[in-house]
Design brief:
Ribonuclease iii, N-terminal Endonuclease Domain, Chain A, 3 strands, globular, mainly alpha, 10% strand, Double Stranded RNA Binding Domain, 11 helices, 237 residues
Amino acid sequence: MKSSERSEKLHWQKIEEALGYSFCNEKLLNEAMTHRSYANEHLVNSPDNERLEFLGDAVLDLVISQYLMVYLPHSPEGELTRIRAEVVTLPSLARLAKLLDLGTGLLLGRGEKRSGGREKSSLLADTLEALFGAIFIDGGYEAAKAVILPLFIPLVQQAAAEEGQDFKSRLQETLQAAQCCLPVYQLRETAGPAHEPIYHVDVLINERTYGAGQGHTKKEAEQAAAKAALQTLDNNS
């Protein structure tokens, strides 16, 4: 084992401690922390984390959906969908991944390391979902739920308290007050099946991306992107 790989794998215990979960099958943890660039470069027997990420995405949606059904027993389906869409956005997942310091333990190819892969939001978000998938296989649904809920309940509660808020209007008002140009919303991609698409939208200010959002409608995705941009502006102030 190379020294860099040894260092990364030593960090996995800290990740388990941060998650509050110890794997019975360490191969699942290894798979969850292996990026495609590393697997392709080293031709390792262990697969990369993309399949686990696919599973973890579904597990996360189920856990959050079940919690919302209990936490908001009288809210309509549209409101539950809005809250879930805001909570499981790429920016939220990336922030949690950074708090858990997942980047330090990632197995990355040389090129991905040089390009700052340990700090890439999309890569970190995918890794967190891969860990959720690995925990689901290793310990079952209840184990996954026990890990996911403490991380996401504060986000759910915040999103629920923001019912009816128009983040696009708030962002426009903030920029006008600062005498900045108006935001531009760009559809980056549409993912998912045709009957249930997921829209990914970026919001640009002065041709620079300040936020990204996703949702089951373009409106939801734009609202999520505007919210992320407001958070970016607040952090930079």
